[in-house]
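User: Continuing from earlier, I have the next pair ready.

Assistant: Great, send them over.

User: Here they are, in order.

Assistant: Folding the first of the pair now:
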Amino acid sequence: AVPLTSKSSTSAMTPGTTTPGAVTHAPADDAVTETQQPAPAPVEVKEGLARVLIPEGNKVFYNKAQVNNRDLSVAALRCFARTREEEWHAGTSSAAKRASRFAAGDAKNRALEETPDLEEEAALSIGKERMDAVLAAPPPPMSVIEAMAASGLRSIRYAKEVRDVGSIVATELVPTAAESIAENATLSGVSLRPPREDGQPRGALDDPETMTQESKREAFIDVRTADCRLAMLAHNAAFDVVDLDPYGSPAPFLDSAVQAVSDNGLLCVTATDMAVLCGNNAEVCWSKYGSYPIH
């Protein structure tokens, strides 16, 4: 018997033809790349003297309806600044009393160190002159904290429109929002750095000759990515103005805010919670505010 053998045969292919089912690839030069649509540009909003950029979809929260609230806040700070300055010159505010006593004691002690045989009455007179000079100079710039600053619009308006504001701490939990605050401050021409090398705003204990109206009105914004309650409590000094404008009830933030505001300071609270404050669900109002709505 002759064994049967099989032979593999190949068929000739005509140039330019392809085998059915085969996959062909176009040359790299002929590859078509998908075009990506550029991200929509943020919308620029102008309010008062501030300019802010709002990303698409309001990713950094901006409430247009609150423009009247922000206008009132600016007006309130201006009135507070006038009252604060009057109390400073009269020496009746807590800050004025502390600053004048410190200045008087410091001047008296220096005089006694420089002239050991100086009479006590003369040293007291030198201290009194220093106290009068401090109270005659403008008060130190106001320190402000805006909790939950979002786009930073309110902080920027304070810096641009209230002459007596010196430093503003703007807090946000979301890093994207904090970056937006810094960008908007730069866009509006507000500095993000303290005006003095030691990192502190100009104060009443500076040399009165250097405390001109122009030199002491250098407002800056300190942007912090942090829980506003911790930022209020961890600050090294109380704030002259504490501004709360949460989206909803401000009740969770009131304890920290009251502890953070200085004596004779100003506490600004906005409650966008009318459905609870003036609604029919009295139990919710009681749980949030410890009170019942009045109908």
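And the other member of the pair:
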Amino acid sequence: MGTAPVSQAATPSNRSNPASQAHEALAAQARRIRPIEIPTLVVAVAIYCGFALVTYHHAALPNWLLLILGGYLVAWHGSLQHEVIHGHPTPWNWLNEIIVFPSLWLVIPFDSYRESHLAHHRDENLTDPALDPESFYVTAREWRRAGPLGRAFLTLHNCLLGRLILGPLWILLLQSRAIFKAIISGDLKALFGWAKHGLAICLVLVWVLEVSGLPLWKYLLFFVYPGLALTLLRSFAEHRAVPSVSARTAIQQAEWPFALLFLNNNLHALHHLQPGLAWYRLPAVWRALRPDLNAASGRESGELFRGYWEIVLRYLLWPKEPPLHPAERWRLAGKPDDISGSMLQNPGEA
């Protein structure tokens, strides 16, 4: 059940980086000594206990607090799912999947998330809208077909406020399209994943609606929507389309509530360098490798963020960059290109 976790040694950057290989060996040794990761299990218990308490006692909480707690718990559970995708917290994938089986955010099947995220970790394809399922860039063809309103949406979606408000709706639209496509094409693997997801949704809604008496509209508005928005906050500035693979992923220093919420995935350049490293080991390894990672992530170009407050100040009302992928902008400008594989293998000026 499930797929094997991404191997740390599988990425090209790891094979050529002695420091990375040393840390991989330490991480592998730690897993052999203590294969079950207690800190991650503690997080899982905290999420489910917190979720049960907040939903059951929702009537006693003011709406502003319910919004904060509900969104935090749903996004935190998404971070836990991310850990499971990378083989944590136990050596057994079937058990890891059971731990995150309830779908608190309702709209994203775990199987789909796992498949797209593992594809996203092929770093040579990062940000390429044709090859990276988690890219927020679009191709020239998609840009042309979007029309004026679609282009306005894509541009607004690239500022932080637009991402937080429109992003959850966009996710819902994409997932609705995915299940429709699976039904039309008769994709049995995808349909099986959606069937499992249906059970995961039912498990959550039985508790929320029947046991806790929380109305569905309120759960969607105070839990699901802000939970997805917080997840989109994390991913907003993680990647950029540049020729250097090592510079495509940012480091986002985070205030402790966000570091805990995202399980240190804000140290994203390190996560891509060592995707199998447990979340609670990331800060120490980052401190050891900080100079190299900061240089690779591009301090001079602003891709080392000092906190999420900096992202808010810089991009709340202003697009981070154009939605059109740089290689595609180069193509639209009529310049000759020979793009094979990743669009940035033969980069031109945007």
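Worth noting for the second one:
The chain has a mean pLDDT of 85. The longest strand covers residues 251-252.
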